[in-house]
Structure formats: structure tokens, C-alpha cells
Here is the input.
Amino acid sequence: KEDVRQSDYRAMYSCGLLLLSTALHKQTISPLLIHAAKVVGNKLLLSIPALFNSSSYWKNAISVCYNTATEVCPSLDVNLVLPQQVRGNCSFDFDVVITNNENVNWAMEQARFLNPAYDKNVIYANLDLPNTPSALHLEDDRTLVDEQYTDVCLGGTFDRLHNGHKILLSVGALLARKRLLVGVTTDSMLKNKHLAPLILSIGGRCAGIQSFLSTIGFPVSKLEVAELRDAFGPPAYCPEYRCIVASAESVPVGNTHITR
Here is the structure.
């Protein structure tokens, strides 16, 4: 039997892992995030312990998790770990595991999928979560991420990454089978933008993108970060990009297929 220490969580942890169920809804995630924000002071990883999910499930899960985090714990650095078939067998570092499942051994098993050497604290949240029939559930067909493209691209300024950026980058990472190209606007393109002197340098913005994608488990070998010197970037002349990920506000409806 595992010797798992139950913490009274009076101390703050730098990085935590919050285990979610496959039934996702704002009303069920909100109490867990609020609870986790009292325990974790810096970075929180979210993990959905499921192996077989469709891309539509994951795109919705990404949106629900980050939008809810923006509302209930905006100062916490929240990161939803990608499904295993996308991230592979990379390892993650965290100081504590938080779960609403009273089976602590199950929580340790899930934690060791992400970090085989993990032997630290598990906190049982013991929250009475609402029953939400409309929650997102694991799909019954047990298909793998089914909507993928060889080459996927997206672009933006990415100044001081926020949860909207994380949604965009996560969906791109989810759909890219071989390569994800992230275009970042150059400093010269931003010189006339409001409060331009306060925008991070392109080096700092690129580093933030790489750090986030690494945090959620996207393989660095599949990532390409390029400087955008015009409004179009490589997709304008590289036909291999069959998918452009964008927010609904950034592209005129009907001109481009938008992956939400």
C-alpha cells in the first residue's frame, strides 16, 4: 500500500496538479479551481485522466478550462496538459496533487502517469460538486484525436500570455500532427500600436510561447516559431498549411475555416 502523506495544506505549493474528471462543466470546475488557488501559489497543471477522446471533446475542454480559470482564479498560471496521444511520454514536475476523488491511490497512479517518480503530497478536496447533466463527457466511441493536420499554423502578438492565448495555442497543438507554426509579430510591426513601448520584445514573446507549449507537453521537435513581418506570414505562400487556427474575431467569417 502506498505511503501517501495527507497534507493539511496550510502551506502554499509552487506548482500543483489538479485531477479533473472527464465530465467537464464550469459549475464543477469552478469550486476545484478556487480550492486549488488556495493551495498553489504559482502554476497549476490540469489533467483529464482519459486516454480516448475526440478532438471535439478536447477543443471544448480547452475552452471550458481556460475560460473558467479566467473568471475564478485570474492570477494563477493554469495549464491544461495535452492528451497522451499528442504529448507522448514526457514528464511533468509538480509539488502536490489535488483531487476530489477520495481514492488516494488512484490519484497517485494518475500523478505517476505524468511523473513516474512522484512521491509527494495528495490533497483530497472533499468538495460537494453540483450534478450537471449538460457537462462535457468522455465520448463513447473511444476514438483518438481524430481531427489532425500535418501542418498547422496560427499567429499573433502574444504579449504576456493570457488564457485566450493559451486556448489558441492549445488547439493548434492538439491538431498539429507534424508541425505547428506560430507566427509572432515583429517589434517593427507593432511600433504604431497603442502602448507599443510596453509590449515585450519579440524574443521575450517567443520565449513565452515556447515555455507554455513545453509546460502542456507539446513536443519541441514539432514547434516552429517564426517572425511575422506582414499580415499574412508563411501560409500565404506555403500550400502545406491546411489548417489556420484563429479566434472568431480575427478572421472575417467565410474567408477562412476557423477551428474553435
User: Anything to note?
Assistant: The longest strand covers residues 176-185.
